[in-house]
């Protein structure tokens, strides 16, 4: 088994700067930014979680919108029970789609290029590529 390898030092510097710029743009627009989300991926209050991945194969700047943790847990219970059309599930899905569109618009207007993540481990995230 091989260990994950970091991208080059120059690429690390570029990605960290891009992550910082992404956070600054979102904060200026009034979004709550979580620069280092905890390992569970949850935040009590929610916000724009920015992850700067410095490893080869997945390296990049990713933005995910996290809802309030109680809401996320409620929706998880409904999904686990097979209640895919529950109103709270539909509401969270609609809110997430609307905020992703807003995040994309704000970052794009600031001159950043934003694309849907192609990483199957980050299916609902946005990737800021430059």
Poorly predicted ranges? none
The succession of helices and strands, N to C, reads: HEEEHHEE
Instruction: Supply Rg.
Output: 16 Å
Q: What profile does the largest beta sheet have?
A: 5 strands, mixed
Q: Roughly what percent helix?
A: 40-55%
Amino- and carboxy-terminal Cα gap:
32 Å
Strand order of the largest sheet: 1-2-3-5-4
Assess the beta-strand content as a share of residues.
15-25%
Structural class: alpha+beta
- The overall average pLDDT, rounded, is 89
Considering the chains and any ligands shown, give keywords for the structure.
globular, 17% strand, 42% helix, 130 residues, five-stranded mixed sheet, alpha+beta
């Amino acid at each position: 088994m091989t260990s994950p390898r970091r991208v080059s030092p120059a690429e690390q510097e570029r990605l960290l700067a891009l992550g910082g710029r992404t956070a600054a743009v979102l904060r200026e627009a009034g979004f709550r930014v979580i620069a280092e989300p905890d390992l569970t991926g949850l935040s009590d209050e929610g916000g724009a979680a920015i992850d700067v991945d410095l490893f080869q194969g997945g390296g990049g700047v990713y933005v995910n919108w996290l809802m309030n943790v109680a809401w996320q847990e409620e929706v998880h219970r409904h999904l686990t029970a097979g209640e895919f059309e529950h109103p709270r599930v539909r509401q969270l899905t609609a809110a997430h789609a609307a905020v992703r569109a807003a995040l994309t618009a704000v970052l794009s207007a600031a001159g950043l290029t934003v694309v849907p993540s192609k990483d199957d481990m980050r299916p609902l995230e946005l990737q800021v590529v430059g």
